[in-house]
Amino acid sequence: MEIQADSLDGVLYNLYQAIRTHGRPHKGSRGDTLELLGVSLRILKPRARISTSENRGKPFSAIGELLWYLSGSNKLDFISRYVPAYRDDAVDGIIEGAYGPRLLAMRGSINQLDSIHRLLSEKQGSRRAVIQLFNAEDIAADHKEIPCTTTLQFHLREGLLHLSVTMRSNDAYFGLPHDVFCFTMLQEMIARRLGVELGEYYQYVGSMHVYDAYIEAIDKYVEEGFQATVEMPAMPEGDPFRRVDGLLAIEARLGAGEELDAQAETGDSYWADIVRLLQVFWAKERPETQTGTLERLRTELAHALYRPFVDGRLHLARRGVVSAGAPAQPFDGGADVAV
Ligand SMILES: O=c1ccn([C@H]2C[C@H](O)[C@@H](COP(=O)(O)O)O2)c(=O)[nH]1
């Protein structure tokens, strides 16, 4: 089955209905699901990577997960602050299937992002620009958690960088919005590093499923109706990977409770907004000033598309729902507003 749309929301809207209509019951390792085999997604405007729906817009935890990948870390400590559900997957504080070490130091040393950049700089039309995340070792012995994503293949055609992702398993409710966000961001970062434009995004999934406990939630999503296509602004020119260390340092300072001026720190409105979203997330650690901080960040945002997500946090803050130590992402269900 192929589902094509301009945006993540367009894909979710059609996919959720397809799962409802054609999905077959399957008992997965983590619970009962409705499943579709062999689903191919195509997103024509990969910058429309954040859902504008009531409860599938996850910019805060998705940015946290992207930074975790880019840090090369496999530590639970980092990611559990943004996606607490990882706690169930950790072995001695380590996520064995973490993408970061595999992307940046596969088999201890191979930086696969550098390989892609070199390959496509030298041979633009190459069909070899494949990042491997899944390894034979992953199923040779039993592991608590292994990568759901098998490969990322980049295609440079007529000045556009397209990305095909293959996944062995994808949770259409929780995993998919995060995966699309992180992989299309990586796609745009590599496009900028190569000095080319962003193309289309494809995701082929062996087992696409929704856990039974979230069937009602996907029905609710569909009832909201078709969402307008809202694109993130284009990433500024230049190599975004040069920014990674700086962004990680800022993230660590925010996590430690520091306040900072996003524009002064980044000198760029695109990345300043990304930092502001992190500030919105971390504002929960100071409940006494949280509402004021969120209101200030809301007015500082250079791009209006992020405001509804700040409003979601403001709504929670005013109700006293999001407080110090609370997760961004209620993976355990619960809140139905954008967090
Ligand atoms: O990037 C990811 C990582 C995990 N999952 C989901 C898919 C499955 O529901 C579950 C992993 O379970 P197994 O496929 O390993 O049984 O996590 C995703 O959707 N995306």
TrEMBL record:
Lineage: superkingdom: Bacteria
InterPro entries assigned to the protein according to its UniProt record, in alphabetical order: Thymidate_synth/dCMP_Mease, Thymidate_synth/dCMP_Mease_dom
Organism: Sphingomonas quercus
UniProt xrefs under PANTHER family: THYMIDYLATE SYNTHASE, THYMIDYLATE SYNTHASE 1
Protein name (Swiss-Prot/TrEMBL): Thymidylate synthase
Pfam families assigned: Thymidylat_synt
Ranges where the Thymidylate synthase/dCMP hydroxymethylase domain occurs: 58-225
